[in-house]
């Protein structure tokens, strides 16, 4: 009786310890974790997540200071991937941070209305607008991430979002 | 899948020769239950009856399970085992192609755990030197359907342990291997009667290999691992551990190697994975037979390795053309 | 003698004897030729003519429309009847902008200057000259040959591989080409060797085409060029797949995501080499090709030398018409060919074979059953994939898993499809999932580029600010010193 009891308790304890150890994520180099999170983000650099770019958001996620559902350009797929990476509850994107785009959009400058003020060029986080003071500005569609940060600064409202060319 | 059934014919035939017509009745009951349960499950799941009903998978499950049960087992044993296998182990998980466990082995394991005594009531083989109580076909049918032996006999008079079971009991009683093997049940390398049945199974397995319906990796790995374990242990202490030939030819070793473990749905998927899977079954079979609580370990070994299959598959993805190692 | 580097693969019944009994003959002329402008890989060609213009055979009528594009030449003399959308076989019958030529049957040739001997041109000049002949890969990929040669040239130890391993059943156009025009193939090999500045050429051919091997062997011997040799490969499908053939002949694997140039090899079809020969030696640009017309649904199965733009219906008529047993018209072979909705489609540069298939040629597909993980597919896959896993993840549309299991490396050969006991249309499923997966990979590449630009901009702004702070600090110091 006693040997059987001891065996059962011993096996159960060993199994419990093994389960706890296995469930703990391995200690990651913090920088590497931030890199891994950043690799999942769409790099739109739009700031809708309330952080100043994708890497600051990744850092905040690694520090536990942000939630995984704050990135509308990434969509629900990115939220799910982040949840899986960080071991958190998967949730859809929170609409308070913005709506998930249904198709990729890029900015387009109406060249007839542009006054050459360079305010949009200064605002673009990925240098996708070419131009200079008093010269024509234009958006390089292939490099535009759709962040929409160029739209508010334009004094003549000549920038609109259009579906990305295929 | 029809070829698998054809390959089982020699095994079934010799089984009937040595142990009477009970197996045929079990098969009939099992197949009827299997088809009935399969039809009901397909209807409930909204799937069309043809082509699923007669694709052969349910029939094979029933035949394999019937082969694992004693020939005179009461009818409700095979019926409940097959029902469990088809309804719970197969359709509850998603039907054909989706079951993570081998359905026949699940059914057998449930019966073994629930009715252990019934499953050990085998018959002595019909060979010279042994006088089995030969029941006629009608008496066999009556025994199976009523659950009690014919009036002129008792259970003790009819039944006998399997060689594996006898060996286990004798070793526990303190006999040496040599003394145990001297019993009338044993032949030169296996149990009497069982040795021929196993040869028939080997022939059936070879037939399937020749037709490339199964690949060699699982049978070779399983039998190889079993052989190695048995050789090592019996070399170390021949008095306490049975030799490799005995292990290979007794119980469900060969049936398991060629017909049960090779069920593609619940086995590993790459060739390297299959070698690991088969070897695991062989080792576990030896361990359960020698130190575990049951005379034969094939069923539980297969089920445990079924659990390991997703892990094995994850780590044995072959190198894709053009990729670095 | 015959080597094989194909892992897996299938031994298939070739069905080629019936179409190689007759020798090659030209197709009968037709009234109207339809030439889609996008019948090559890359940018569509841009017309140089307009409706009503008189044109001659061999005249360039469309020029390359981009960096990777090709010239298009008129296969007949006559007039430009129209430039309008017409059903195109490479679009499954959807319309493609095409030049329609009305054939005046006078067969007047466009005179161009006699080309200088190719040895006198530099490799680069020779490549440009090849490009002006409208030459594209005639093995089926129709990639502009000049662009392919330019991207491969410069690799050290570059070797030329001519692919005569026509492994797909029913197609026999290369077999007949090698039997009857072996000299063209060998001359083309010499031209390509010069264009690539390469020193070795291997012509690979399957071991079940002895007459072609004999003819080609004789031509190679006659040329007395020790750079060129003939090698036999085992006739296992898909031995003629570019990657599989390179592994068989040279024993190296083309890296994932890479090109044959990465292993110092340029692989071209023997038909392409023959087309190069005709252009460089005879000033005859690519205006036609050999097409196999086969299948139980056509009366006479044979190979024809067909001008581009000939309607497929005319080819069938030329071969005695339909037998009445045809159930499907396929462009290509029996493993990778595509079924066409009707026969009013033109022969294009990619048309190597037309199968008028009857029930004898095509096995009907049974109902699709669930995958039982038998592993027949993974045993047959030449790319060493696990189609049973890819199928599982394709059903779930799990793009991340499809990427891990290598869907991008699938060569769509159809071996897995062929051996599946559950009749699952695997190759079709994988073909359907590839665009979604490529979109995901492209999105990731774009995101990486955006990250790089963002980091560069952030660094630039920080540097500007720190330079400004440093300049201001210096100014404060100078002012402090002065006072």
Largest sheet of chain C: 6 strands, mixed
Proportion of helical residues of chain B: 55-70%
* Distance between the ends of chain C: 95 Å
Please tell me what the overall shape of chain C is. Answer: globular
CATH level 4 superfamily of the largest domain in chain C: NADH-ubiquinone oxidoreductase 51kDa subunit
Q: Which structural class should the secondary elements of chain C be placed in?
A: alpha/beta
CATH topological fold name of the largest domain in chain C = Rossmann fold
Q: What assembly state would you assign to the polypeptide chains in this entry?
A: heterotrimer
Mean pLDDT of chain C: 92
User: What count of helical segments of chain B does DSSP give?
Assistant: 17
Secondary-structure element order of chain B, as H and E?
HHHHHHHHHHHHHHHHH
Number of domains of chain C: 2
Q: What is the straight-line distance between the termini of chain B?
A: 36 Å
Helical segment tally of chain C? 14
Spell out the key features of this protein.
heterotrimer; A: 166 residues; 3-methyladenine DNA Glycosylase II, Chain A, domain 3; Alpha-Beta Plaits; 2 domains; two-stranded antiparallel ribbon; two-stranded antiparallel sheet; 8% strand; B: 325 residues; mainly alpha; 17 helices
Q: How would you sum up this structure, described in words?
A:
The complex is a heterotrimer of chains A (166), B (325) and C (483). By secondary structure, chain A is mostly helical. Chain A contains five helices and four strands; from the N terminus they run ααααβαβββ. Chain A is rod-shaped, with a radius of gyration of 24 Å. The model of chain A has no long low-confidence stretch (mean pLDDT 89). The two termini of chain B are 36 Å apart. Chain B is built from 17 helices and no strands. In chain B, α1 packs antiparallel against α12 (194-210) and α6 packs across α17. The model of chain B has no long low-confidence stretch (mean pLDDT 87). Chain B has helices at residues 2-19, 22-45, 49-52, 57-68, 75-90, 103-114, 116-119, 137-146, 155-158, 163-172, 177-181, 194-210, 217-236, 244-249, 253-260, 271-291, 298-315. By secondary structure, chain C is an alpha/beta fold. Chain C contains 14 helices and 17 strands. The mean pLDDT of chain C is 92. In chain C, 35% of the residues lie in helices and 18% in strands. In chain C, strands 1-14-13-17-15-16 form a six-stranded mixed β-sheet, sandwiched between helices. In chain C, strands 2-8-7-4 form a four-stranded antiparallel β-sheet, with no helix packed on it. The longest helix of chain C is centred in the last third of the chain and has 57 residues, at 426-482. In chain C, 50% of the residues are buried. Chains in contact: A-C, B-C. At the B-C interface, loops of B face loops of C.
